[in-house]
């Protein structure tokens, strides 16, 4: 992802947080046509049941397998791709590669591979969770990219593992779950419209031509996750109600003591400086990332990226030593619960005891 200057982000933040996130009761809209969608909270018992599910050992193992130099076209890049594909195929997901060639600065002609995995390849609609799996080319420097984006990749694989049983009911439903692991997010020389987000640009263009984009209800893009005390904001008005679900889930987890090493101030949650998902909106798409080609084609986007960026962004210090697994597991819980609540929305085949 790109930003001309981290201080620009900080200054922009200071002058732009006055807008408050609307309550989720304002309504939920999905897809390019912004169709109404009904979603309810998980019942108290099932919320607790899912919140207590965890497999940090699997999460750490996944991070270890991904946290190697994985520049497009290198053996490390291929190794990570094989690991991601095999991990999901072992869980009986349908996995396909969207492959293409492109000539890039410095490294020349490269072969890229987006990884697209679905629970039900024949579904009519999808909730999409996405991240990128390549690492940045930095001449003379070994860049591992823990937050950028080994941890988000591992979190998605961990979600599939931890919720394996709960996701079974969405293998044959009209609404199902899709994972996209974008390739070539990083610039090879200098971030520009042509030297960046290679995989996202190619896939969005392909799906637009094929008429597939209307099947995407919502694209949730994860990036720069893994360090302690991240702060997230709502960037887009048409997904603000969905962002409010993340606020609500974080509140429920915190109120019941289900957040690891999470310190609540004991005051009204919106004023709690320790929370991750802030009750504020930043009305700008100034952060360029894999969501941009889809956003420009009117696919609704939730961009879960901390502002400001981690201090280790695009430095050799973005390695395993900076990963806070308590924070990572907290975020993983929130995203797991969000995913289930979303999928439970209007699917009549599910067990309605899950709904409040």
Largest sheet: 6 strands, mixed
Q: What's the pLDDT, averaged over the residues?
A: 89
| End-to-end CA span | 38 Å
The count of DSSP E runs of length 2 or more, i.e. the number of strands, is 10
Unreliable residue runs: 4-18, 264-271, 347-356
Query: H/E order of the elements?
Result: HEEHHHEEEHHEHEEHEHEH
Strand line-up in the sheet with most strands: 3-4-6-5-7-10
Which class best fits the helix and strand makeup?
Answer: alpha/beta
Whole-angstrom Rg: 19 Å
How much helical structure, as a percent, in the residues?
25-40%
Description:
With 356 residues, the chain is an alpha/beta fold. The chain has helices spanning 6-16, 44-51, 56-66, 75-90, 146-162, 164-167, 198-210, 240-255, 292-295, 325-343, and strands at residues 28-30, 35-37, 94-104, 108-118, 125-132, 175-182, 216-222, 232-234, 277-281, 301-304. The protein has a six-stranded mixed β-sheet with strand order 3-4-6-5-7-10, sandwiched between helices. Strand 8, helix 8 (240-255) and strand 9 (277-281) form a beta-alpha-beta unit. Mean pLDDT is 89; it is low at 4-18, 264-271 and 347-356. Belongs to the glutaminyl-peptide cyclotransferase family. Residues 114-337 form the Peptidase M28 domain. It comes from Musca domestica. It catalyses: N-terminal L-glutaminyl-[peptide] = N-terminal 5-oxo-L-prolyl-[peptide] + NH4(+).
Outline the fold blueprint:
Layout: H1 6-16, E1 28-30, E2 35-37, H2 44-51, H3 56-66, H4 75-90, E3 94-104, E4 108-118, E5 125-132, H5 146-162, H6 164-167, E6 175-182, H7 198-210, E7 216-222, E8 232-234, H8 240-255, E9 277-281, H9 292-295, E10 301-304, H10 325-343
Parallel strand pairs: 5-6, 5-7, 7-10, 8-9
Antiparallel strand pairs: 1-2, 3-4, 4-6
Helix pairs in contact: 3-5, 5-10, 8-10
């Amino acid at each position: 992802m790109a930003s001309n200057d981290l201080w620009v982000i900080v200054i922009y933040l200071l002058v732009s947080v006055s807008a408050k996130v609307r309550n989720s009761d304002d309504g939920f809209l999905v897809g390019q046509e912004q169709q109404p969608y009904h979603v309810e909270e998980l019942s108290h018992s099932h919320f607790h049941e899912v919140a207590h599910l965890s497999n940090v050992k699997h999460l750490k193992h996944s991070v270890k397998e991904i946290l190697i130099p994985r520049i497009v076209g290198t053996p490390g890049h291929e190794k990570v791709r094989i690991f991601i594909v095999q991990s999901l195929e072992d869980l009986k997901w349908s996995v396909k590669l969207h492959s293409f060639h492109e000539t890039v600065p410095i490294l020349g002609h490269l072969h890229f591979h987006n990884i697209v995995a679905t629970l039900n390849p024949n579904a009519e609609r999808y909730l999409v969770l996405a991240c990128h799996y390549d690492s940045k080319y930095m001449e003379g420097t070994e860049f591992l990219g823990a937050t950028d984006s080994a941890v988000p990749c591992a979190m998605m694989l961990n979600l599939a593992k931890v919720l394996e049983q709960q996701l079974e009911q969405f293998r044959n439903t009209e609404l199902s779950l899709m994972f996209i692991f974008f390739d070539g997010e990083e610039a090879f020389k200098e971030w520009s419209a042509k030297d960046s987000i290679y995989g996202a640009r190619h896939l969005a263009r392909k799906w637009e031509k094929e008429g597939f984009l209307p099947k995407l209800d919502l694209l949730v893009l994860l990036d720069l996750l893994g360090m302690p005390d991240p702060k997230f904001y709502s960037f887009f008005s048409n997904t603000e109600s969905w962002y409010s679900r993340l606020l609500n889930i974080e509140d429920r987890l915190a109120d019941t003591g289900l957040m690891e090493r999470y310190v609540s101030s004991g005051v009204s949650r919106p004023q709690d400086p320790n929370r991750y998902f802030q009750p504020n909106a930043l009305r700008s798409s100034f952060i360029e990332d894999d969501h941009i080609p889809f956003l420009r084609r009117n696919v609704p986007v939730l961009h879960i990226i901390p502002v400001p960026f981690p201090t280790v962004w695009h430095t050799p210090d973005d390695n395993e030593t900076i990963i806070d697994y308590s924070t990572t597991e907290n975020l993983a819980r929130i995203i797991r619960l969000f995913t289930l609540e979303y999928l439970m929305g209007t699917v009549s085949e599910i067990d309605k005891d899950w709904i409040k």
